Amino acid sequence: MQRRQPGGQGPVRRSRDGGRGTRGTGGTRARDGERSASRPAAARRAAAAGAAKRTTAPNPNGLTGRATVLLVILAALALGYAYPVRVYLTQLAEIEALRQSQLAQQERIAGLERQAEKWKDDEYIKAQVRRRFYWVYPGQTPLVPIWDPEKQTDKELGAEPAAPPPPDSWYGKLWTRLEPEPESKN
User: Fold this and answer.
1) Which of 54, 94, 97, 139 fits a 20 to 30 Å CA distance from 61?
2) Cα–Cα distance between 163 and 107 in angstroms, integer?
């Protein structure tokens, strides 16, 4: 039985020794272990006289197959570690925000404790009652400021007082019409 080789070199005769017979083209008998299956077929055959030697084409992008596989593996690892690193950094930011919040709460608690200590003093309580409820001792004349005591007045700033905003209600408009006009400073 004769078969053709895949390359079309002609029929191959198989012998009874497991197919390691002679070639149909009159080649030599192959010895055990001498023939390497890892070598390409072009390297196993002798080149014809005057034939050009085969060379590999240069890779235009400069990446070999190994480098491409390595880059793919590194990209997969980077993508695999990106999410856990992001979660870690987010958790670090949350921990820092909680520390800042805790410090602010501790400062607030300390301020409230200082305030509570002040309320244990009778003189402080009297001063707060006089300031908040406008209480006076018997015989004193109460003076109630009509402006915010924490803000400076226009006179203190050296500017002329600003005109009050026009009233929005009907009774406010009526009252402004009934009031006499202020005298000018001429």
Assistant:
1) 54
2) 42
